[in-house]
Specification:
Helices cover about 40% and strands about 15% of the residues. It is of the alpha/beta class. It has one domain: NAD(P)-binding Rossmann-like Domain (Rossmann fold, 3-Layer(aba) Sandwich). A seven-stranded parallel sheet has the order 3-2-1-4-5-6-7, with helices on both faces. Strand 4, helix 4 and strand 5 form a beta-alpha-beta unit.
Length: about 270
């Protein structure tokens, strides 16, 4: 924590970029980061939604810029990173939140073009932004990346093959990048924002009767904890808002020692081992 930071403004002076910030979870994350003192770049396709989110942040005394961006346009990833850094300075935190849902129909009936587009948005887009952000972060030996994954990447439910597969891929990508970044001063995480009532979750048939919803602001609080460095020892791992920030911090050593919160195959023990 720098001299200008405090318990109420833990991210004072930090620069953050949030994709999918025009609505839903991304908007909530951006607002919470701004309340914690960060200068926040808001990226999405919906210019009107971005302007509304930025206005809400500014009215509360925060700092935000609007950056129209299509996560499917991987060639524009470098330009987006440069744009936020021109406005606010070197990037401290990237939150890859933008994503889309699948068709919500069985795989055998799916449209393969749309099925693959879910991968383009949910995996290729975040990967391009990670790559674009990393060169500067590695050079400064400082920075953090949060990939918003999902618990649905760890389970199989009907009519969700595209979305679940992309989130499993994003979680594994996070782990792979984290291994490469060991000792670099840069940390990358995969998180679950919980079950948040959004336009996306309303289209998942198996979730329509769910009553135990999580507040969208909880993901923002988790991102603040990550940005502050409190969870650096858990880089490369997947965890979510339902674990609780204090519980994660208290259990850090156990999680690392037992190699928890990672994607692993359960195998039948080999004879003699």
């Amino acid at each position: 924590m720098s001299p200008v930071q405090s318990a109420t403004n833990p991210l004072s002076g930090d620069v953050a970029l949030v994709t999918g910030a025009s609505r839903g979870i991304g908007r909530s994350i951006a607002i919470v980061l701004a309340k914690a003192g960060a200068h926040v770049g808001l990226a999405a396709r919906d210019l009107g939604g971005l302007e509304q989110a930025a206005e809400e942040i500014r009215k509360s005394g925060g700092s935000a810029s609007v950056l129209p961006f299509d996560v499917a346009d991987v060639q524009a990833a470098d330009d987006l990173i440069h744009a936020v850094e021109r406005v606010h300075g070197p990037l401290d935190l990237l939150v890859n939140n933008a994503g889309i849902n699948g068709d919500g129909i069985p795989f055998a009936s799916s449209n393969m073009d749309h099925w693959w587009r879910v991968f383009e948005i949910n995996v290729r887009g975040p990967a391009a932004l990670c790559r674009a952000a990393l060169s500067g972060m590695i050079g400064r030996r400082s920075g953090r990346i949060v990939n918003v994954s999902s618990g649905l990447g760890n389970v199989s439910i009907p009519s969700c093959s595209d979305y679940s597969a992309t989130k499993a891929a994003l979680t594994r990508l996070t782990e792979s990048i984290a291994v490469e970044l060991s000792g670099s001063g840069v940390f990358v995480f995969a998180i679950s924002p919980g079950m948040v009532r959004t336009d996306m979750t309303r289209n998942i048939a198996s979730l329509r009767d769910l009553t135990d919803w999580d507040a969208p602001e909880a993901a923002g609080s988790l991102c603040v904890a990550i940005a502050s460095g409190s969870l650096d020892k858990l880089a490369g791992r997947f965890f979510g808002v339902r674990e609780g920030i204090d519980a994660l911090i208290a259990s850090t050593d156990k999680i690392v020692e037992q190699d928890m919160h990672v994607l692993r195959m359960t195998r039948i023990p080999t004879q003699g081992k």
